[in-house]
Amino acid sequence: MDSKVSNRILNLPNYLFADLENLKQEKEKNGCRVIDLSVGDPNFPTDAYIVEKMKNSLSDFETHRYPPFRGYKELKESVSNWYKRRFNVEIDSEKEVLILLGSKEGLSHISLSYLDPGDIALAPNPGYPAYAGGIALAGGVLKELPLLEKNNFFPDFSNVSSSIAKKAKLMFLNYPNNPTGAVIDIEKFEETVNFARENNIIVAHDAAYSEVSFGDYVSPSFLQVKGAKDVGVEFHSFSKTFCMTGWRIGMVVGNAEIINNIAKTKAFVDSGVFGAIQKAASFALDSYGEVSKEIKERYTERIKILKNGLNPLGWEIKEPKAGYFIWTKVPNNLSSMDFCEMLLDKAGVLVTPGVGFGSHGEGYIRISLNVEEEELHAAVQAISKNFYVY
After folding, report:
1. Sign (positive or negative) of CA dihedral 147, 240, 365, 389
2. How far apart are CA 193 and CA 225, in angstroms?
3. Cα(184)–Cα(177) distance, integer angstroms
4. Contact 36/372 with Cβ under 8 angstroms?
5. 3-class DSSP state for residue 277?
6. Domain spanning 7-45+292-386 has what CATH number?
């Protein structure tokens, strides 16, 4: 078949996690066991009461039909109530909330909603690959916001040239950050709002990891800042907070006009989230609204296993304040990809190369905490016996 693929598909980069899966499968084909510390998929089951709510909702005839395009009224009200309880932010459930098939699709659809071919969008480097993918699908031009360790992995807006800033239509931010694990305070969001207002840029803040925090750290919301709703929206995911990655449900909240335009785009792409899932999500927000204490304790224990096991070997494992990743440096004489391939070959442990998140991720790797504690102990043991690079 002589098919002519569109330029937008040809211009898409390879998806990082698909490439890692191929590496893993190749290793396993040769009979080797692989301890996979690369993917951010919680290995905890969804709470049994949320699952039960889903089961009960299956017999509700309402859920067998197309849902409202913007989402069920009860779920949008739950989102509004949760924002008030959690952040003390008033949200109009009818105009300022849109239910998504997971926050990932919304992060792509905002680019399709606002970027014409050649339009500039700003995105963090290193950053979640979906930002770049959405910009590419829309035909936009990505301009990087370098996230450097010396700046605590927050963009230095003063380094964005005035010509780029004035042309940019859209900007992605993500805190707590994936992949670096960086967190910020409310003052940084104020800085973001000022920069966006001065340059007429729409802000898309990805807050997927806001509820996965440790110790006394509490993540702020972008929308807590005065004027934030004038310039942007915030994306949330049920995947991380409620261990519902496979359910595919999220929300975008904030500026009513932006919400409306994303909804217009989605109306031609999908028909909304299955109603029983929406009812279960509403129950989750109303009944829980946060990551359980037990799950946070398990993540904390996993961090300690890696820190106590790898730091004596020369690694530099630091305890993150939020998220479920560890971002750490590799030796200066190795690229992040070389390090990952060597680690997989020698120890059978798969982690994510920092360069996969952008050029400024070079020199780092990302380690996921989403495996059982026994697996982490096994990874530490395999590394200590077979992998000497520090």
Report:
1. positive
2. 8
3. 9
4. no
5. helix
6. 3.90.1150.10
- Asked, colleague to colleague, whether 7-45+292-386 and 48-287 share their fold, the answer is no
Would strands 97-100 and 250-254 be described as parallel, antiparallel, or unpaired? antiparallel
Q: What is the pLDDT of residues 72-96, one digit of tens each?
A: 999 999 999 999 999 999 999 999 9
CA distance 180 to 229: 26
CA distance 176 to 207: 7
Domain borders along the chain are 7-45+292-386, 48-287
pLDDT band at 12 (very low <50, low <70, confident <90, very high): confident
Q: Give the mean model confidence (pLDDT) for residues 311-330.
A: 96
Q: CA 14, CA 335: separation in Å to the nearest integer?
A: 19
Tokens describing residue 340: 């990952």
Helix (H, G, I), strand (E, B) or coil at 110: helix
The answer on pLDDT for 311 being more than 80 is: yes
DSSP 241: H
Q: How far apart are CA 222 and CA 227, in angstroms?
A: 10
What pLDDT is recorded for position 1? Answer: 59
Its pTM stands at 0.95
Query: Distance between CA atoms of 388 and 118, rounded to whole angstroms?
Result: 47
One DSSP character per residue, 158-172 reads GGS-HHHHHHEEEEE
In CATH, the architecture of 48-287 is 3-Layer(aba) Sandwich (3.40)
- With cut-offs at 50, 70 and 90, classify the pLDDT of residue 32: confident
Residue 202 one-letter amino acid: I
- Whole-number Å distance between alpha carbons of 71 and 236: 15
91 vs 46: CA distance, rounded Å: 27
HEC-encoded secondary structure of 65-105 = CCCCCCCCHHHHHHHHHHHHHHHCCCCCCCCCEEEECCHHH
Which residue intervals of the chain are DSSP H helices? 7-10, 16-29, 48-57, 73-87, 103-114, 129-137, 162-167, 186-199, 228-231, 238-242, 256-267, 275-287, 293-310, 336-347, 373-386
Phi and psi angles of residue 148, each rounded to the nearest 5 degrees, phi first? -110, 145
